[in-house]
């Protein structure tokens, strides 16, 4: 029996993924690994005891294969303190499944310490997969204690992991400098090309599209101000703590902004066809999945120069860079893109993502790593 234990982020769950509209996207690669016979079972280490019952519903609906199973969390794991305790003792409470596991697979730095503990207890190979480094985030936010703790955690993961997977080249360099000898492989975010298809028509009069969390780092305030100055309609998909203040800002500046809420990832693929321009104004970003998906649909992406955007886009060919983060810079670039509107940019973006960021490619990369490090019979 070849089994993989997959660690969600700290306090995350299958139910939360569904609420956020991310369930199908997040599970796609794991389902592919099962379909290819790379492993027979995938056990999800999550923090909601209701995941077990919800997973059974997913099995009955055919949404997830029978090979995806949940390590049932105790009731106390729903509180923050309880989740901390469970993240430490979980490998002991679930020791039978951990003893039988062929490989451990983290999803982000947050919660990855459980993988370290499991490796120490059962000597199971560990794949440390991560997105944007938490230490970099906390350093930029000027939180020295958080930075020190996460930097120590990341270094420990680099020493303990049998293999490291990151989503972008800057992260590959960042983690590679922590410890020589640990192999760091590029495991880019993927798009399911069976779900996303290129738009067939472009129209400059369509609203500008944004998809993402409503948080400070997304720089949505300046996005709204820029669209207001140009009298452009903006549709925002997502939720977050800033929604109320962003609604007030849009009202105060009389911006044409529609807050569309959360939509399942598979539905967003269809909604892409109602738009032509996608915007991202983040002040920092790893390799943003929303941008990869927008490019797969052939949307013209206009984005600030974060690590992820710089890696994904070639300026003027597969998208457009914004030269700054304030409302003036955003408005200037949006105005230029509209005056120099070219569907060829979106079409080139779609071809690029199809070649380099497909689900099948990501599955092959992961399969090679797991076969290399896993205790498969």
**Approximately how much helix is present in the residues?**
40-55%
Tally the beta strands.
Answer: 13
What form results from the Cα inertia axes?
globular
Order of helices and strands: EHHEHEHHEHEHHEHEEHEHEHEHEHEHHH
Largest sheet: 7 strands, parallel
Could you list the spans in which at least 5 consecutive residues all have pLDDT below 50?
A: none
Q: What is the overall pLDDT average?
A: 94
Q: What is the domain tally?
A: 2
CATH topology value of the largest domain: Rossmann fold
CATH superfamily of the largest domain: Glycogen Phosphorylase B
First-last Cα distance: 7 Å
CATH architecture of the largest domain: 3-Layer(aba) Sandwich
Number of helices: 17
Structural class: alpha/beta
The CATH class of the largest domain? Alpha Beta
Strand order of the largest sheet: 3-2-1-4-5-6-7
Radius of gyration: 21 Å
Classify the beta-strand content into a percent band: 5-15%
Written description of the protein model:
The protein is α/β, with parallel strands linked by helices. The protein folds into 2 domains: 3-190 and 358-373, Glycogen Phosphorylase B (Rossmann fold); 208-356, Rossmann fold, CATH 3.40.50.2000. Helix content is 46%, strand content 15%. The chain has 17 helices and 13 strands. It has helices at 14-19, 23-35, 51-61, 80-93, 95-100, 113-122, 134-140, 144-160, 169-176, 220-229, 243-252, 265-271, 289-296, 307-312, 327-339, 343-356, 359-373; strands spanning 3-7, 41-45, 68-71, 103-106, 126-130, 163-166, 184-186, 208-211, 234-237, 257-261, 277-280, 300-304, 320-322. A 7-stranded parallel beta sheet has the order 3-2-1-4-5-6-7, with helices on both faces. The protein starts with a strand and ends with a helix. The model has no long low-confidence stretch (mean pLDDT 94).
